[in-house]
Amino acid sequence: MESPNSQQAPSQSTSAKKLTPSVIAHYLNQYVVGQDEAKKTLSVAVYSHYRKIGKQRQSGDENIKSNILLIGPTGTGKTLLCETLSRIVRVPFVTANATSLAQSKYVNEEIEALMLRLLDKAEGDIAKAQRGIVFIDEIDKLKSNEGEERGTSGERVQHALLKIMEGAVVRLGSTQILDTTNILFICAGAFVGLEGITATKHTYGFISVDANSNDSQKILARLNSRVKPTDLFEFGLIPEFAGRLPIIAKLQDLSKEQLVRIMVEPRNSIYNQFREILMDEGVELDIEHEVFRQIAEMAFEYKVGARSLRGLFEEMLTPVLYQVPDQPDIRKVVIKSLFEEPSLIRKEE
Ligand SMILES: Nc1ncnc2c1ncn2[C@@H]1O[C@H](COP(=O)(O)OP(=O)(O)O)[C@@H](O)[C@H]1O
Ligand SMILES: [Mg+2]
User: Ligand 1 pocket, 82 CB below 6 A?
Assistant: First the structure.
């Protein structure tokens, strides 16, 4: 699964600027609403990755990289964050999907193909490919279930991935080899059920806090919601694999307000996309704030994060999109409520 490069790449000024964590986060902010913790973690990790690589070239030191695990409910922006990140980083970046890796009979061939894609992104430059970033989505689908035999496909893929995450030499074709030691791996998954595991394993419950102090309660709550490697084993990842993902960032459920913002704020927001589509027909689209609130309300109930927004939005606009091409006298469409017919404003009215 390659990220579509159709969206606007970072502007000239961004790419000339030093990619500090805040510059990376600023870019992510233009496309991803909320999820500040994940944005910060990714920005710092990517920045550090560059720095270590730069230093290592001067000193020849061993690089100790810190692969990242993103955990969060479905539809909250994990894939979007990484796709957006891939457009700003100046190292080769490829994405893979753990589910399809697990479905393949030939895991090692799949991994080899992934490394070949990375090399391709590096325009054939092995040294450049060896400093790239690999994003693996739906990593939680590799869990082994209780009672299942050992050596299930998911576990096999974990072992195969573990090797390249630790640093291995991958043979590409008959002549080239690629060393994965310095490649940064970012994994993501929803990890349904992990919350329950983390919640029942309060490691910090013994720290006495002032029950009346809001601050210490908050700190305790934060410590207790931290995902520990042991939680990941219990979830079904093999210990060695979980151990290779030392940095864990959590994504949060999106609030109704954030769902509203997602429809209108990002550069390529749904609202902007449909305004453009109608603009092509010479029609102005004006949707009132209340409508976004109503859509967010429904989407919130569906509990699939921002995933249902587009469907709800399109459904609302279908009657309009159906009529407009045949009726050139329509110059403006105003929608005031999801439960009212859109007003079609015609020329000379
Ligand atoms: N935080 C967010 N900001 C903006 N859009 C979002 C956000 N979260 C999800 N979306 C939108 O919802 C859809 C699903 O998001 P995705 O990143 O694939 O979710 P997941 O966390 O399951 O990987 C995408 O179309 C994406 O644009
Ligand atoms: Mg995803």
Answer: no
CA of 16 to the centre of ligand 2 (A): 30
Closest residue by CA, ligand 1 atom 17: 77
Of 112, 80, 109, residue with least CA distance to 3: 80
Cβ atoms 53, 132 nearer than 8 A = no
pLDDT at 90: 80
Find residue 184's DSSP bridge partners: 133
* Predicted TM-score (pTM) of this structure: 0.84
Give the whole-angstrom CA distance, residue 257 versus residue 125: 45
**Radius of gyration of the CA atoms of the chain, in A:** 23
- Strands 247-250 and 184-189, bridge-based pairing: unpaired
> How far is the C-alpha of 117 from the C-alpha of 106, rounded, in Å?
17
Please list the ranges in the chain whose pLDDT falls under 50. 1-8, 11-15
**Which residues, in sequence order, are CB contacts of 220 under 8 Å at separation 6+?**
204, 207, 209
Ligand 1 and 132: CB distance under 6 A: no
State if residue 291 touches ligand 1 by the CB under 6 angstroms criterion.
no
Q: Does the C-beta of 73 come closer than 6 Å to ligand 1?
A: no
For position 127, what pLDDT does the model report? 92
Could you tell me the two tokens for 44?
């710092």
Tell which phi-psi region holds residue 124, choosing left (phi > 0), alpha (psi between -120 and 50) or beta: left
Handedness of CA 203, 207, 209, 211 (dihedral sign): positive
Q: CB of 153 closer than 6 A to ligand 1?
A: no
Q: How far is the CA of 75 from the centre of ligand 1 (A)?
A: 5
> How far is 131 from 103, CA to CA, in rounded Å?
28
Task: Judge residue 154's burial from the number of C-beta atoms within 10 Å of its C-beta, 0-12 exposed, 13-18 middle, 19 or more buried.
Answer: buried
